[in-house]
Amino acid sequence: MHPGTATAVNQAVYDDSHVRRARLVRALLELGGLQLADIKRVLAAVDDDSVPLHDAFGLAQDAMVPPRPRTGPAYERALADVDEFVRRHQLHVRPEAEVRGMLADALVAVRSGGWDFDLATFDDRMPTVVAQAVHELAAIPDADRGTQMEVSVIGTISYEVAVAALRRLALEHASWRRFGR
Fold first, then answer.
1. What is the pTM of this model?
2. Is the distance from CB of 28 to CB of 67 less than 8 angstroms?
3. Residue 27 burial (CB < 10 Å; 0-12/13-18/19+)?
4. Which residues contact 4 (CB under 8 A, 6 or more apart)?
5. Within 10 Å of residue 67's Cβ, how many Cβ atoms?
6. Which of 91, 102, 106, 166 is spaced 20 to 30 A from 83 at the CA atom?
7. Is it the case that residue 53 has pLDDT exceeding 80?
8. Measured between alpha carbons, how far is 160 from 132 in angstroms, rounded to an integer?
9. What is d(CA 2, CA 21) in angstroms, rounded to the nearest whole number?
10. pLDDT class of 116 with cuts at 50, 70, 90
11. Could you count the other beta carbons within 10 Å of the beta carbon of residue 107?
12. Domain spans of the chain?
């Protein structure tokens, strides 16, 4: 965080940019689960005007994916399935994007339980998911770069948490309807 305006030896005044930066750090830490080193990398990209906004957004997205080893035959198959899914839906996603590994993690976990899960399950949902992403990004204000990054990162983290919570509410409701009566 950049320094505030000194008003005394041990006092300073902080402006809205400080509040926004504190909100961003808090969201990355608490909702995003990022380590401080990752937060520092994201903030450096936000602050570096030479990094294109799309690349800075990609760096922030990558930082939000938990790192883990992704090796072995199960991951090779899962990553190949993710690549095919990305091609099939003509998604413009970087080959090195960590989110590919995140989706592969889900495939490996489900398949390790004995369920031969196929990403084709999501084919019908992808147009809606892409439309939602376009809608979310359209809500980013035409403002300064810092504000745009803050809104996109906090929005991504908060929206993912909210969607997961809504899905779990719906699952509990559906469970009650099927098993709880």
1. 0.81
2. no
3. buried
4. 12, 13, 14, 15, 18
5. 11
6. 166
7. yes
8. 12
9. 9
10. confident
11. 20
12. 5-179
Are 42 and 34 spatial neighbours (Cβ–Cβ below 8 Å)? yes
Distance CA 167, CA 8 (A): 51
Going from the C-alpha of 130 to that of each of 65, 90, 127, the distances in angstroms are: 19, 11, 5
pLDDT (0 to 100) of residue 171: 96
In degrees rounded to 5, what are phi and psi of residue 132?
-65, -40
Angle between the N-to-C axes of helices 36-47 and 53-63, in degrees from 0 to 180, rounded to the nearest 10: 170
Both structure tokens of 129: 């998911």
Q: In whole angstroms, give the CA distance from residue 154 to residue 39.
A: 12
Distance between CA atoms of residues 62 and 96, nearest Å: 9
Q: Band of the pLDDT at 30, cuts 50, 70, 90?
A: confident
Q: Which amino acid, residue 53?
A: L
- Structure confidence at residue 145 as a pLDDT band (50, 70, 90): confident
Print the SS3 string covering the chain. CCCCEEEECCEEECCHHHHHHHHHHHHHHHHCCCCHHHHHHHHHHHHCCCCCHHHHHHHHHHHCCCCCCCCCHHHHHHHHHHHHHHHHCCCCCCCCCHHHHHHHHHHHHHHHCCCCCCHHHHCCCHHHHHHHHHHHHHCCCCCCHHHHHHHHHHHHHHHHHHHHHHHHHHHHHHHHHHHCC
